[in-house]
Amino acid sequence: MPQGILIKHLGKHVGEEVAIQGWLYNKRSSGKIQFLIVRDGTGLVQCVLVKGEQPELFEMAKGITQESAITVKGMVREEPRSPGGYEMSVTGLEIISIAQEYPITHKEHGVDFLMDRRHLWIRTPRQNAVLRIRAEIEQAARDFFHQNDFTLVDSPIITPAACEGTTTLFELDYHGEKAYLTQSGQLYNEASAMAVGRMYCFGPTFRAEKSKTRRHLMEFWMIEAEAAFFDHEDNMKLQEELVYFIVKRVLERRRKDLEFLGRDISKLEAVKLPFPRLSYTEAVELLKSKGEQFEWGDDFGAPHETIISQNFDSPVFIHRYPTAIKAFYMKPDPADPRVVLGADLIAPEGYGEIIGGGQRIDDLQLLEQRIEEHKLPREAFEWYLDLRRYGSVPHSGFGLGLERTVAWICKLDHVRETIPFPRMLYRVYP
Ligand code: 4AD
């Protein structure tokens, strides 16, 4: 049989005989009629076999088990009751391989059971929809940066120093020397921004987080941007435009997947520019007005972020955090050096921080002082200090956590379903 067309294109072939290739997702039979629900990763289609019309094919279909790989030939017609809206009357059937008894049935399974079989779980239509939305978000971010003159400059995965604190480093033996898996491409992004002006990178980042929460992964993907001559305000504007672009794109191109997931689409449609901005100090006041016990200087926990986000339909920036709770590279606000020119972007509906970013220290002496205060090994940062020695300029950047963004857009309870093979505190299998 010829190579098939994709199920998502069936609508263009109504009234024609076509072939599709995929896997048996489910089967129903009434004795005289069999319905094979076939999936190919782009959609589902119901294939109908009538015993009286195709006795041989009908017999053959009986032996096809869940997840067997098949080629089906048939006439396409519209059928609103069929998943995907089309149906095929089978005229040909070829078995590529018969699957053994499949562990993931159409009953409910526990999360641990499914996580142990993640390599199979990703085949289910729900997981498929999430993977497609994730891919759309990645593509949207790339398109956004490309359209806005940001050059893609890849940052390294193996690094000699910490970017985001020394407590979450994954250490490597690099031919007898200590090295670490990257926590963020940022320091390299700053170097790249001085080379190309505006840059972005997109890759996996690693944090040996000791926390087992629904927002933390050990390996997650970050979309990071860095721009020379951007101040803190320019930086927030860039971030809100990126996030808005992503939301619009997903609404435009993956609406069916969102509907399939049961996402309340009006919540995404309510996202509007510009995003609200609260200073850290204003956010503390807001929390206190809601009866929360909170001291100026403390960091927000997930419940605080949720309370803050409940006041807004769009993601909200919290800017100018206390210097003491932020990374060594953040530029102090000249108007009040107790706080930094940095911001976190908090997603609506309790999804927490999706972006961290800010303006960087561009002064050599101050940066040297911070490296010392944070007890970071000076030698490993000499190259980074060079950026302040040779043509230092104001510059800013940020990192958007892909998985938390996918969790918010898809409205998933846990980041484990946002990435094909999650790496979590006690899970590195499969
Ligand atoms: O706020 P973070 O730590 O910022 C940075 O790493 C900066 N150096 C980025 C930059 O300015 N270039 O992390 C950025 C985002 C967070 O807002 C969050 O969305 C995500 O990365 N993130 C995680 N996502 C999943 N699991 C984890 N363990 C995460 N840690 C951070």
From TrEMBL:
Its EC number is 6.1.1.22. Its main location: cytoplasm. Residues 131-420 form the Aminoacyl-transfer RNA synthetases class-II family profile domain. SUPFAM superfamilies: Class II aaRS and biotin synthetases, Nucleic acid-binding proteins. Keywords: Aminoacyl-tRNA synthetase, ATP-binding, Cytoplasm, Ligase, Nucleotide-binding, Protein biosynthesis. PROSITE patterns: AA_TRNA_LIGASE_II. It catalyses: tRNA(Asn) + L-asparagine + ATP = L-asparaginyl-tRNA(Asn) + AMP + diphosphate + H(+). It is an enzyme of class 6 (ligase). GO terms for biological process: asparaginyl-tRNA aminoacylation. Pfam families: tRNA-synt_2 (PF00152), tRNA_anti-codon (PF01336). It is found in: Cytoplasm. GO terms for molecular function: asparagine-tRNA ligase activity; ATP binding; catalytic activity, acting on a protein; nucleic acid binding; transferase activity. The keyword Zinc does not apply. GO terms for cellular component: cytoplasm. It comes from the Bacteria. PANTHER family: ASPARAGINE--TRNA LIGASE, MITOCHONDRIAL-RELATED, ASPARTYL/LYSYL-TRNA SYNTHETASE. NCBIfam families: asnS, PRK03932.1, PRK05159.1. Homodimer. Belongs to the class-II aminoacyl-tRNA synthetase family. This is Asparagine--tRNA ligase. It comes from Desulforamulus ferrireducens. The lineage of its organism: Bacteria, Bacillati, Bacillota, Clostridia, Eubacteriales.
